[in-house]
Design a protein that fits this description.
alpha+beta, Jelly Rolls, 2 domains, four-stranded antiparallel beta sheet, 3 helices, 8 strands
Length: 157
């Protein structure tokens, strides 16, 4: 007597294909879940800029209402000029206005004439943070700067 597989060979191919389809769906679901989890620690700024001699460049980021108790962390690098250096500041919106207007200010992060640096600080919901590359001290050289900033949710701290 012949088995069911011998009687209908297309049935086994269909079964294997449906198992493969289930496996493919599972792998896609798993990849989606992992990407959502990885997106919690996501890059919010990743830029290369030119700070012109005697001037500055800034990028800014607004912390959304969903980012309760989160942190911002990142790094910057600088190339150009004699020492490959730049002044770097992280400021709130109010402190940025004070800095720009030449009033006394308090920076969250401040590096003077540095080639590179790292930072990490608690972020307030609804606040805009300014990442400033100050090249006012350089009268000759433009600076190529790179910055990357990630937001880290409270549950990953």
């Amino acid at each position: 007597m012949r088995s069911a597989i011998e009687k209908n060979p297309t049935r086994i191919n269909f079964t294997m294909q449906s198992h493969q389809l289930v496996l493919i769906r599972f792998v896609c679901w798993l990849a989606l879940c992992l990407s959502v989890c990885a997106a919690d620690d996501k890059i919010v700024i990743d830029k290369e800029l030119t700070a012109i001699r005697g001037d500055y460049k800034e990028v800014h980021y607004l912390i959304s209402e969903k980012a309760v108790e989160s942190e911002l962390k990142g790094f910057f690098t600088c190339k150009g000029g004699l020492n490959d250096d730049v002044n770097f500041l992280v400021l709130t919106k109010d402190q940025y206005v004070r800095w720009y207007s030449n009033y006394p200010y308090k920076a969250i992060v401040k590096y003077e004439r540095r080639k590179e640096g790292k930072f990490r600080f608690a972020a307030a919901v609804g606040e805009t943070y300014y990442f400033v590359f100050d090249n006012f001290f350089s009268t000759v050289s433009n600076k190529q700067v790179k910055i990357q900033v990630k937001i880290i949710p409270a549950e990953q701290k």
